[in-house]
């Protein structure tokens, strides 16, 4: 049944091309909700074997080359299918008022979602690569057409990096197919590749996938792409697309070439730790709120790569849990920055936002950002804490020094998160700049809640702030519920993730 996530999503995208614009957002919402409902039903189904990569659909595709339409499922892929559904629904809700070219916008959005479902469920190496590359085209158009800051540059940079990593991945796939004689991931996982082949094929394949996961120093596409993308595009980039690279690194590179992984995993850990600390330090110096969150994504994805490098059940399970956690938290942060704040204030500059007293003008946005910030910093009770502590326990067993260095990165994460939170919502500079205007705004909000609030920035520019809409509240509520539910009861996901990790070849 989980295969219907792909079919429903692509069907919804096709329907968007033929129906009038007035139905576009409803079609997108129904499609995203249906996909999530299918994944949620499978998640709580007791009849599914999540400990092994079990076939759910297999049809001959190009028999002469051994290519099959082959889908399979285990606890790892199910977890990522679930977060894809959550991110898809919230992205549609935060795009509810898109009017210009709405059919086209939601068409590209659903193509990204459908392609991501395909990657997480593919058990044929070429099929996985096809879905993987399919995501590139809609990513480009979402940013180039509907983006904002330097959108052409951001879209082109993201696309060029994607084609570069795609070339490396294709080279690795050819090496695996030529040596193993099959494209079936389950069959290739049983094949004994020559150590000489693994020594070069693994880094080529892993690096190709890891570029999309934001590995340092090939991470620079991520902050630029996040800033240029529309809000839904940023949410999908952080929530889903970056997970494609991390998932494929685990499913394909590490599982097919275990000896190569053992040769190179220390270097992966080194690059991961550098990425955690470096990106956090750069985020601390940013003045644009979206750039802060963009570098935050790179830093948090460094935890995923560190978890993968540990090569033990705790670390790798924590890495998969962090993929889910960051998918939810990153989407929530970009939703607040791009939709709740930028759409109303037309600025993301922290210095400008500091004078607007947004905690009073947009209290729901302030509350949401506080929750997202706490989750991002790894406060206990949120999914970020459960994921990062699991990774660090695994890392302590393999690389104790990395844990100490990562601790410095976690301090920097807390520093730039609190700085962004304070400057955006709780900085008192604006109160002294225009006390009478701020007071008037508070009075207007209390007496007449329906009209949009009016405040004055530090530059004395009148800004009308519309109330947070119902779709925005629903989207934020879904994401906040997800990070709290997993943070309070991580066993819900770990019971499904760990058996699948234990079955991985590189652990044996």
Could you walk me through the main structural features you see in this protein, from its secondary elements to its overall organization?
The chain has 508 residues and is mainly α. The chain contains 23 helices and four strands. It has a two-stranded antiparallel ribbon. Strands 3-4 form a two-stranded antiparallel sheet. α14 (313-345) runs antiparallel to α18. The longest helix has 33 residues, at 313-345. The chain is globular and about 65 Å long. The relative contact order is 0.10.
Short summary:
The strands form two sheets. Strands 1-2 form a two-stranded antiparallel ribbon. It has a two-stranded antiparallel ribbon with strand order 3-4.
Which key features would you list for this structure?
mainly alpha; single chain; two-stranded antiparallel ribbon; 508 residues; globular; 4 strands
The number of distinct helices, counting runs of at least 4 residues, comes to: 23
Number of strands: 4
Oligomer: single chain
Mean pLDDT: 86
Termini gap: 31 Å
Q: In this structure, how is the largest beta sheet organized?
A: 2 strands, antiparallel
Sequence of strands across the biggest β-sheet: 1-2
Helix content: over 70%
Q: H/E series, N to C?
A: HHEEHHHHHHHHHHHHHHHHHHHEEHH
The assigned structural class equals mainly alpha
Percentage beta strand: under 5%
CA radius of gyration: 22 Å
Q: Which segments are poorly predicted (pLDDT under 50) over 5 or more consecutive residues?
A: 430-463
Shape: globular
